[in-house]
Structure formats: C-alpha cells, structure tokens
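Protocol step 4 of 5: obtain the predicted structure for the target chain.
Materials: sequence only (see below). No template structures provided, no constraints applied. The aim of this step is simply to have a reference model before the mutagenesis design in step 5. Sequence pasted as it appears in the construct record:
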Amino acid sequence: MTITPFQKQKQIERDLIIEIGGNLFLSKGFQGFSLRLLTEKLNMPKSNFYTHFQSKRELFYAFKIQEYQKFHEKFHALVESQICVILEKLTRLMRFYMNYAAQDFHRFQLIFATQAPPFEKFGPIEQEFNAQPNIMIAELVRIIQSAISNGEIKPINPLHCTYFLWAIMYGNIQTIDRIKSGRLGDYLAYENYAIEEMRNYLKTLLVTTE
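Step 4 output (structure tokens):
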C-alpha cells in the first residue's frame, strides 16, 4: 500500500506528539501533564492533537505501548539468542530486566507499573493496551515449559515459577533504586548479589545426572 506524502506527514506528527508527550509524562506525571503545555512545546493547535488522540489518557497509553514494544524487541532478541543452557539463558534475561529498570527507574515504573486514574470509558488505544498479554511473562513461561519438556528442569508449574521469579526481580529492582537514589551503597554489587541468589534458586530446579 502506497503512503501519500500527507499520510507520511501525519505519521511524523503523531510520532512527535508521542515522543514529546512521553517526556512530559515522565517529568510531570499523569496528573501534572497538560495539553496546553504539550501543544506549546510542539507549536501546534490543539485541533492537531485531537486528530490523533481523543485525550491525554489515550496519549499516555500510546506512549506506554510504544515503549513496551521497544523493551520487548530487545527482550525477545535475548530469548531467541543462541544460548542453549537454561540456567545461563534465564540469568541473562533477569540481568537484562534488572539493568533496564536500574538505568531509568522512573521510566520503568511509568511503563510497567503506572496506570491512569480509574475512568468509566476506555478509548481504543487504552483498550488495545489492556488487551495485550504480558509478553515477558509469556516468554518466560514458554522457556521454562520447554526446559521441563527437554528434561533440563524438574516437573514444576511453569506459571508459578515465572511469577515467583518476576516477584523476586521486581522486589530487587525497587531495592536497587532505593540504594542508588539514597546513595546507600554500591547498587551494582547488590545487583550482582541478587542475581547470584536467583541463580542459586534456579540451580535447585535443574535436573542433575548422577
């Protein structure tokens, strides 16, 4: 399908709204965000904004979808990498997730944990966001299930194992941010310690040959 110059320009405009709007959500939060400030920064009338988004709420979820897709592309590339040993693959994925959060915890929280305030009516972009499965959880379940089928991991509930690993990672991510922001010590040293402890847990799941 051929894209006309007008359609291309509208896509560029939409992408720019998401980029600048996302930066405002990161700096101001959902409640502090204003369309007036956004349109001033973009030097465009509000009518242009409303040709792309019904509300700031819809823009918020468009930004979350875009950022989550970027994260998933990198995560999926690791999943599909030629790392055959299950312990090393899971360790690499856990380290990637924790490093991603540690680099910009505020962005991580906005994408993975922050929801817009309750609202009676959802727009199409928010509906699209809510309909998306948690791809990271699904990928980990698939990896663990495959390792069980291949005889690498003992028979366990792969979903429960995934939730347990995710809970440990998320808790450690918050701890790392407190150490980093409060200057309470070497957060990288703690991150390495946390990952090593998670590896020790994973080792208990491995099938060993006598």
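Step 4 remarks: Residues 1-52 form a domain with the Arc Repressor Mutant, subunit A fold (CATH 1.10.10). The chain has ten helices and no strands.
Proceed to step 5.
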